[in-house]
Amino acid sequence: MAKTFRCSIVTPAAAILDDEVTYASFPAWDGQIGMMPGRSPLLTRLGVGTLRLDYPDGNSKRFLIDSGFGQVQADGLTLLTERAVPAEEVSLQEAEAELAEANSKLLAVGADYDLPKIEHAQQLALAKKAIAGTAKRG
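Structure (tokenized):
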């Protein structure tokens, strides 16, 4: 059995990553899914959260993932997502400001009140806060 598998991340704007990894943990709509070589095929809707990739050299990378679809096949993992941001590019201050803004919208009643959109903004801000401290910044 192979000790690595191919992981690809694709957004509407670009192919973000195409690497050989030993392990991946990604956010599905109903919880975190872990993957190692040899996992059974799977197609799932992605949620908002942290993607962790472990490499053969012992290093790891983390990305903020925002919705989409994940497909596990015999030869690897493909994530088609709206957004994939490396952890080192996520700002804790911006995440806190975005969360405060989303929370304040829940208190406002008006014509632009869109609960699913506000809840998504809250989930995204919380995921950004969680990932903000996980990467070394150069």
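The chain has a mean pLDDT of 88. The two ends are 36 Å apart (CA to CA).
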